[in-house]
Amino acid sequence: MIAVILAGGSGTRFWPRSRSEVPKQLLPIAGDRTLIQKTVERLLPLIPVDRIFIVTNQNHAVETNRQLAGYGFMPANILVEPVGRNTGPAIGFAAAVLSSREDEVMAVLPADHFISDPDRFLKDLEFAESVAGKGYLVTFGIPPTHPETGYGYIRQGPALEAVSGAFAVDRFVEKPDRPNAEKMIAEGGYYWNGGMFVWKTSVFLEEMRSHLPEVHSRLDDLKKHCVINDTGLATRQLDAGGKAVFESLPGISVDYGILEKSSRMALVPASFHWSDVGSWSALDDVLEKDREGNILSPNVVALGCSNSVIQGETRVIGAAGLKDMIVVDTRDALLVCSKEQAQEVKKIVGVLEKENREEVTTPATVMKPWGSYTLLEKRENYLVKRLEVLPGKQLSLQSHDYRCEFWTVVSGVADVELDGESFKLDAGEFKFIPVKGKHRLGNSAEALLVLIEVQFGEKVIEQDITRYQDDFGRC
Amino acid sequence: MIAVILAGGSGTRFWPRSRSEVPKQLLPIAGDRTLIQKTVERLLPLIPVDRIFIVTNQNHAVETNRQLAGYGFMPANILVEPVGRNTGPAIGFAAAVLSSREDEVMAVLPADHFISDPDRFLKDLEFAESVAGKGYLVTFGIPPTHPETGYGYIRQGPALEAVSGAFAVDRFVEKPDRPNAEKMIAEGGYYWNGGMFVWKTSVFLEEMRSHLPEVHSRLDDLKKHCVINDTGLATRQLDAGGKAVFESLPGISVDYGILEKSSRMALVPASFHWSDVGSWSALDDVLEKDREGNILSPNVVALGCSNSVIQGETRVIGAAGLKDMIVVDTRDALLVCSKEQAQEVKKIVGVLEKENREEVTTPATVMKPWGSYTLLEKRENYLVKRLEVLPGKQLSLQSHDYRCEFWTVVSGVADVELDGESFKLDAGEFKFIPVKGKHRLGNSAEALLVLIEVQFGEKVIEQDITRYQDDFGRC
């Protein structure tokens, strides 16, 4: 079996932890590893890492790569979409790349869901593989626990003759209103559509040809224009021609474009506990609560609070008398809302987007292939950052046209190159980088390098950078 | 008339805006000026600034001075208590210092109350002065608006014969429970005790001799040991002998120690709108609300919120579905509580105090006589600060035994002295201050000086400082 993990996401529902540059799957929302890490981990007992593929976009490719390196994940297995066109074209892109393996079974899985019992999940997946082997497009049906209005539903049809334990699909039901959701729950035989599918690549491509020919007809083109970006962060990308093709595709979900129309659908009821972790209030389904029903991070002093989620970072948080509330505190943005209104977070992000606030796009701590930086303060003509450079890594050789930089090493040893000369800076040492100075920062020591950088100049923006050489293909 | 403003305060009830080093009266809680500034402003039409005295403690004297300098306030009129001993000894100390003016009338006023109509207040004060002139100890009675359990009450006695509009005091009632508060409101003739008093110094001293002789007998000693600290921040302080005397005094309120026992009390009903601004929920009484009953600072995006106080600084705050909530966001600490539980803030501070958290004592931005500094980041072996030095001011000539400092000027021009040499640093220039280097930072230019300082060393604590000369008497 091959796995294709869909890793899109706009980063709005878990704001302010998520940002457009760091959507949900890249965050450790439900434990100490990120959702995409857990998604890959879950598959490894069944599917070797070189058979796991991820479809994501350019903004998230580097961080996805970074997060999965520890599993031996192959960077070339990251397929980069130039734009988002919903799941139909995304899966089509993957199927095109994998079309030489058309006899194999492909599991399509979202990167940002939560599954608490991986063993059951793997058993179900193996069973679904056997059903798919018989020529079906398999969708997992999640037994509903309440009349949720946020999911689509699938009505179970008769049991398949070919394989016991799987069912025909009677019909797909779009996200219902409350009364209809209640009706379906009362009636029985309905499942939530969790967006997890299993099929033979060949069968999927046939069905796409029948039902979504406007996408299927371009798949060969996509395959032809797909190239491996051969740098330290190798990814499969589309060249200029391929990008144009992809951009011309209609934005359509695989459900609507193919599955609802196909006569080869099969439903496999899931035996595992699943959550799409669709909003902050869904944390209740995935994290352990204390006796009062609270989920608190360590820096919280809570008095008389119940059924509340209070998640912070380093800042101390005092809370009193909160009931059914959500508090999410980050270095540069704060969210406070009632659980009932957790879906309103999207609207808050919408308001901030219109104001072009950076808090929508970029977190205060930005992960980089060489480590990370944290913005400590930003004003018009200067900013202050803490840089952390991992052992053995270096930033690009670069220069800036509008700013100079003041570097103070506070931990570790820095390798500094400036206009052809090289220096070592110990903790407690300093270097000035003038405007247009060609410079590079690296860490060849064994400990983390931590450096305070003051940027000063006419323009202090990330875009003011010229790269001359980069270990991560960013020139 | 002379005014004595009592400015104590532990800084717990308005945490995290207030800290033990910056209690409520020093904060702009109810508008753009601080409560102590407003208290002084309110008096100025009636009482010249040189006749206004403040009793406070050493921690708050410098900042009190700084805040009142713009009114021409006389630094020597700041009386510094070595320890807090409640209002009895505090007023006694002031009366001792002012005993040479014993025929004058003294108004005693808290520094941290809110009064919305200063004209009515001044009229009432003038009337109280006339009553005090007849030998009474006058207390203002605040007409109660609801059965508050957080205040003491005063029961009105018969009208005074000597002066119409004033009443005898029947009795003082300590903070009641709810049923008793309701009973008093229903019965009528009760007032809140607002802690504002007017009397002739001589009459007060006589009553103190009768009812609180253990304090009265030490007043001459206090007066004798009171010295003016003759620096740029002149204050009246007690010398070592005076401190010992003051420390030996019992901690007792003027109400309990004198007023409840005196037969010379008079009650003047207040015609002005008053609030003691006793907790975050009291902001409702003093600030304007929007149509949904919210009090929001500019950086808040609020959807579906009502009757809530959301006060931030620069961080963006998203809020949804809050009802009757309080959110107070500062750079280093966050409070979220229901209005009902606003009094619990004290307990939160108590928990943090036990953990010795600096967030209880010191704000992220610390005001200094020369300007301010803001802590941007602190770790074990380094910290990063933004310093702002006012035009014409300089810090002390100083050195540090355990840390070096890296200074980058980002705005204005710095005057730097290091080991006897002097430099000017423009914006974009840098200076390294080695361990034990004798250095000084000043701003002789006309614009604000802003400087980013990285402190690095074995110990990075405020206490690691040796001062050789200081414009503010801190050597």
CATH architecture of the largest domain in chain A: Alpha-Beta Complex
Q: Main beta sheet of chain A, described? A: 6 strands, antiparallel
* Helical amount of chain A: 10-25%
**Greatest chain-chain interface?**
A-B, 58 and 58 residues
Could you tell me the number of beta strands of chain A?
30
For the record, the count of structural domains of chain A works out to 3
- CA radius of gyration of chain A: 24 Å
Number of helices of chain A: 12
Report mean pLDDT of chain A, rounded to a whole number: 95
Task: Describe the model.
The structure is a homodimer of 475-residue chains. By secondary structure, chain A is α+β, with helices and mostly antiparallel strands. Chain A has three domains: 2-275, Spore Coat Polysaccharide Biosynthesis Protein SpsA, Chain A; 282-350, no CATH class; 365-469, Jelly Rolls, CATH 2.60.120.10. In chain A, 22% of the residues lie in helices and 33% in strands. Chain A is built from twelve helices and 30 strands. In chain A, the strands form eight sheets. A six-stranded antiparallel beta sheet of chain A has the order 20-21-22-29-24-27. In chain A, strands 6-9-7-8-12 form a five-stranded mixed barrel. A four-stranded mixed beta sheet of chain A has the order 14-16-18-19, with no helix packed on it. In chain A, strand 2 (52-57), helix 2 (58-68) and strand 3 (78-81) form a beta-alpha-beta unit. Chain A is globular, with a radius of gyration of 24 Å. Chain A starts with a strand and ends in a 6-residue tail after the last strand. At the A-B interface, strand 17, strand 18, strand 19, helix 12 and strand 21 of A face strand 17, strand 18, strand 19, helix 12 and strand 21 of B. Strand 19 (333-338) of chain A pairs parallel with strand 17 (316-320) of chain B, so a sheet runs across the interface.
